[in-house]
Hints:
Blueprint: E1 2-3, H1 32-39, E2 51-54, H2 58-64, E3 73-76, H3 81-95, E4 102-106, E5 109-110, H4 114-128, E6 134-139, E7 149-155, H5 159-163, E8 167-174, H6 178-185, E9 190-199, H7 201-211, H8 213-221, H9 226-231, H10 238-243, E10 249-254, E11 259-260, E12 279-281, E13 284-285, E14 293-296, E15 301-302, E16 309-314, E17 317-322, H11 329-335
Parallel strand pairs: 1-2, 1-4, 2-3, 6-10, 12-14, 13-15, 14-16
Antiparallel strand pairs: 4-9, 5-11, 6-9, 7-8, 7-9, 8-10, 16-17
Amino acid sequence: MIMAGGKGTRFWPLSTEHAPKQFLSFHSEQTLIQETVSRFRDFVPDSRLFVAVPRRYLPVLREQLPGLAPKQLIVEPRQKDTAACIALAAFRFLQAGDNEPVAFIPADQYIDDKAAYLAAISAAAEIALRPNAIVTLGIKPRRPETGFGYLLTSPATEEEHAALGARRVNRFVEKPSEEKARELIGKDDVYWNSGIIVCRPETIARCIETYEPAIWNSLAENPQDIDAAYAGMPRLSIDYAVMERADSVYCLPIDCGWDDIGSWASMRRHLEPDSAGNVSKGNATLPESAGNIVFVEGKPAVVIGVKDLIIVSTANGLLVCPKSEEPSLKKWLSLNGDLT
């Protein structure tokens, strides 16, 4: 099940609340959600591929993925973060009598090695067949990244889990300071949290009902009226609602060239820099400039004599900020909601 409900705020002004990043293209002619769906086309039958999407994005989703049947869509009345999204999906599967393991996949990730990625999901599904097991895919950190979550793990005690390479998750660390991130990546038992979760619907349903009953009870009390159910739900991430609190959470380490396409800084990892360390996309000229990230649409841009800036110009707006201030973008946009 591919989760396509994010707003992509940190990619403003290219990504906006009306046209978020999962429906935009970054690395190829396909959009991020088209790339994500393509990875699974030969992995599962079409009938086993689902997309969870807010109702407001249904028109663009149908335009980009016209082959999806209505029964493959799990439509949210509004955006309530990943706990509500996963709860609704689990509720729908259980209503249909389907308790096979589900891979919950963010729609906006980059994967370089598709074969390794799909093999890991298959292994995670095998572990998820065990009672109460929830599996997340872990990525070995390559740099002190402050925008990702981290998993602190230890060897799995269950022989069958250990044989598949799984580790038990002991603690989550969410978006640490750079100092803390540098400390974490020096440890052998630490992984980035990919946000990919594999479990049976009844397992995640039981956890949500236990730890955040307001979410599950809203669905149970309004099984035919999802608008009413969502009206009474808190807005929580699945990590906060369940993953940080559940007892049987496992990390399956993978090496598949994973990246979270979460902010303008991620462009540096996917575009070739010039001799001065600038990365750019669009008609941009950067004389006497170094270390910049530049994205322009439409009209040409000339960027002269500046260093370590993010400069983005689209039909939706203009962004100019030091790279060091990029983490503040989401905060400033939340204070000026009319910009998105």
